[in-house]
Write a structure and sequence with these properties.
Pectate Lyase C-like, single chain, mainly beta, 15-stranded parallel beta sheet, globular, 7-stranded parallel beta sheet, 2 domains
């Protein structure tokens, strides 16, 4: 083979081997109830699950849903957004739903998801709907998280983790929201959300851990539990029938 032919073969082989990594670097990917995780997760060839799509989505990228469906549990280890306008579901039995384990400086957004723990069915209930164990920032917006044996949302991250919950519905679990970082401190801010039908609505445990509440309705066995040096700040507009914040700031 001449030198030109050899060079052409090398370039062609490199293009073949680089093709999968091109899929992995997509800034926007798609999932569908009729998709397949062997696909590149494009709009015309979507994946089947969030776990399949996340491996083909670039850091800072976005996973979207094409239709309603159950897209499975996923562990997130990089900045990413999962956004659905189609009642995307995550159904869990005896496991966690979405686990977020991202380093400091990373940001994760979950929007428009329905995460079901199956506690009111013959199946073994899910443990936590969304669990933050990293040290970055997690935003949960317009999500419904229901029926988990432990927590709808559990902030147990490394030092400095921050969780923001906005316009969401948390029900049917032991705790609607629990912040209890074992090492370091976590901050959780909850706004414009309905937290009802849980054994405890919001629980903050441990020195330095903090929850901030604004414009929420809490209707639970006990609405607010604060202990072991944690703090809970209410910025007015909250409906809390049982339990008291450590600080209340009235609106001017």
């Amino acid at each position: 083979m001449c030198i030109r032919g050899i060079l052409f073969a090398i370039v062609a082989a490199a293009a073949v081997f680089q093709a999968p990594s091109a899929f992995a670097q997509a800034t926007r990917t798609w999932v569908s109830g009729v998709g397949d995780d062997v696909n590149p997760c494009s709009r015309t060839a979507p994946c089947k699950t969030f776990a399949g799509a996340i491996s083909k989505t670039a850091v800072g990228g976005e996973i979207n849903t094409l239709d309603p469906g159950g897209f499975g549990a996923v562990t997130i280890t990089k900045s990413i957004s999962i956004i659905s306008a189609h009642n995307a579901g995550v159904l869990l039995s005896a496991s966690n739903g979405i686990t977020v384990n991202v380093p400091a400086g990373s940001e994760v957004l979950l929007e428009g998801l329905e995460i079901e723990g199956l506690a009111n069915t013959p199946f073994s209930p899910g443990l936590n709907g969304v669990r933050m164990i990293g040290s970055g920032k997690l935003t949960i917006r317009k999500c419904a998280i229901r029926n988990f044996s432990d927590n709808a949302v559990f902030a147990s991250g490394l030092d400095g983790a921050r969780v923001v919950i906005d316009e969401s519905y948390l029900t049917g679990s032991a705790d609607g929201v629990r912040v209890a970082a074992a090492a370091g401190t976590n901050q959780v801010a909850v706004s414009r959300s309905l937290i009802e039908g849980n054994v405890r609505g919001v629980t903050a445990v441990g020195n330095g851990n903090e929850v901030t509440l604004a414009d929420n309705i809490l209707r639970n066995g006990t609405d607010l539990v604060v202990k072991s040096g944690a703090t809970a700040v209410s910025f007015g507009g909250n409906v809390i029938s049982s339990g008291a914040p450590t600080q209340t700031i009235a609106r001017k």
